[in-house]
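I am going through a labmate's work and have reached the protein record below. What it holds is a sequence and that sequence's fold in token form. Please read both lines and tell me whether the tokens look consistent with the sequence. Do not assume that whoever made the record got everything right. Thanks in advance; the entry in question is below.
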Amino acid sequence: MYHLKFIDEHGSFLIEQPENTSYLYFPLASETGLKSAVTPNLGGDAKIDQETFLLEPVSSEDLHNNRSARNFWLLKNGTDAYSVTGASADQENSQFTAMQDESRLTAGFMWQTLTRSSKIHKLTSTVTSFIPKDRNVEIMYITVQNQSEVTQEFTAYAAVPIYGRSADNIRDHRNVTSMLHRIRTDKNGVLVCPTMSFDEKGHRPNQHIYYVMGCTGDGSSPKSFYPTVEDFIGEGGTFTHPRAVYEQYPGYPASAAAAGKEAMGAFRFDPVSLAPKETADYIILIGMEDTESEILELFEKYNTAGKVQKAFSDTKSYWQNQVNVNFHTNESDFDHLMKWVCFQPFLRRLFGCSFLPHHDYGRGGRGWRDLWQDCLSLLLMDPESVGHMIALNYGGVRIDGTNATIIGSGDGHFIADRNGIARVWMDHALWPLMTTKLYIDQTGDADILNKQVSYFKDAQTMRGTDVDAMWNPEYGDRQRTAGNEIYTGSILEHLLIQQLTAFYETGDHNICRLRGADWNDALDMASEHGESVAFTCAYAGNLLNLAAMIRLLDSRSSTHMTELLEEITVLLENDTDAFDDISKKHKILSDYVSRCRHTISGRRVKFSLSALAVNLVQKADRLMERLRTQEWIEGPDGEGWFNSYYDDHGRAVEGFFGNHVRMMLTGQVFAIMSGTAEDGQIEKITRSADHYLYRRAIGGYRLNTDFHELKFDMGRMFGFAYGEKENGAVFSHMTVMYANALYHRGFVKEGWKALRTLADTALDFDTSHIYPGIPEYFRSDGRGMYHYLTGAASWFMLTMITEVFGVRGEAGDLILYPKLLACQFDADKTASISVPFAGKNFTVIYRNINCKDFGAYIIDSASCDGTELTVNEDSFVSISRKMLTALSDDAHTITVNLL
């Protein structure tokens, strides 16, 4: 195998012969909309959104099936054709033989360079691909060098098929939509402007112009053009053996036109003669704009080698500067991997959960869960900018505690559901509170809880069980009062409604109903009697955290009171008997949602903050008591774990079933994280997880054991092959949350085992077959799947910073409480992290002179820029917000000595 190597401190990497590994692709994107996937032979696609694909949409299997890719050809001495991307029939035939090109791929944040050396043609070529941060243009910068000892003549051809329409048309009217194409050649390339966007629900005029433009490094224009696929490949030809190249078709001049055919961004340059070691360079621009003047402006901006090289340098610097967190441990490869883990949340912000080859579901955008979890990484890298975003996000909450599930364009814009289905994911109320708590800890801004935000409103009502026939879309998408005014309530009010409605919506075992699914979307077939023990644990923890947030707000309040919507009173009744009475719970919830079915009163009632906190603690304590006894599974050999779910027949899904054991990781994660699991139970859980779920060779902890059943009364996941995706794969997100929970509870060695095994598998290219980063999951043979766009990256980053290195906020103060193990310190017995906090940049250096593990060392002393800091009696360092604010804007160094 060809191993992957890191080549600089920014995590840039190198791999030889990348075309010999299947399913590789690399993401490129701008901040303004263009999103590309690029393979080692420049396959993949490029798009703005679901309706606007420049290149033909691809799924993972298309990466080796589809030859409709970016290409650049060289015709040597008028006879021998060669592809600088390796995508020719001859080069593909020579793969895995002694005549295979020598190839090398190097890549970093938002750029990729492919270098090929041909033994047959005696030349070396490079293709650097990138997208400037603020432009919707993908740039290919190509260089060709003559490696022979004699002068050689080359004729260069650019060849990029232009798809130019909606992804829906890949199978829906593919040929018909080609008839909409209006194609013409410009002196610098090919432009395609379809007449309309084709949709049988309603055709619309098209404004987009798709283009492929090109020039030599000194700005010289192409000689002739091939504006349609048929013009370029010729009758009987293919993209890997185009007759226009092999038979030297003359092509068309500038200002030629074509219509009603598949478009081709192909053109030929004047021949060049290269002396030995002499180089020629070319620039290819692909993209889409709404006017030809915008395309001309872009061409003028990038039409020389010097301009492109400057843009490339700026692009690299921009994305490197976005990742302002650095780790230093005993293992440099792990530190480099963490660079990519910290970069992945940016990719998810730009790509959403779609638009990369494995992420071929949905129609783009992020979901509700993604919105909040992606904020976790932003809170660690740029916390000061997140408050406004969080406030806008609460605008997606409905007054009944459910929420819109799809994020529209821009912050604060929401869509009820991707597919127009009235569906409730029972975990959705969990994530806003988690994110808001981190925000308050990192910034100290408890007053955000008082910020007034509107509620989302559509026809879905009664927590998704009914339709509001009185709702008129003309009212907009905001909750209104009986007086037809848009209602706003505090963020605290939003949080209370979300948590309390979840608390009261229980099933037959007094556990929160599963509804359409929880975090595991594949548990989607137990909507009637399914219950999620896992997320009931999580909600119990949330209730405690919300109580703590309210106490913090109370400590800073002059009135010690808050105003809440009058209707919420029914959810805050101090009737402890109702906690164990399912019918009473249902009546309370029904009373509340019925009052909010269409409009609300808009009247507010004052509540004591301290009383609210007590109310929530009572609910959490009672919930945890039930969970610890009712849902605990005790094994015969010292094992033990929590049942995670009830199926649609009301049966617990985990335990000992004849000759096999059913165990799921999810229930253990949230039982530990929430505080539901006691220390003795955690010890048994870790032993059970190690025995039944852990497989080191494939990434660590599987999501579940093999249930040996389809379980149509639980979810589609059981139809997947065991070891694939949600059914027993090593699902990175839940594994990282397992690690986070263990660290949080002081089980550090166990937590590091989970993190380290994931990282080791990702870095083992022979096993994972992925570029650096954490994939969504590792399948049964250890291959990384659904790379880049996973919430696991945010949680991995969060865990490394706040738990492993122990650099975290607490009500705005900076806390240093490391949980590093001896094996994580370098040869000089140090480990360090650079991270922003309170608008300042800090490098925190831990010195462990006695090489002790966490639990054996204490903090002996600490200093900031040489000034001694106070060490708390419990062996942590706290730097007050006041002291942080007084520091200069320069970078600061904190040194912590462990003894």
Q: What stands out?
A: The mean pLDDT is 95. The longest helix spans residues 533-555. The first strand starts at residue 4 and ends at 6.
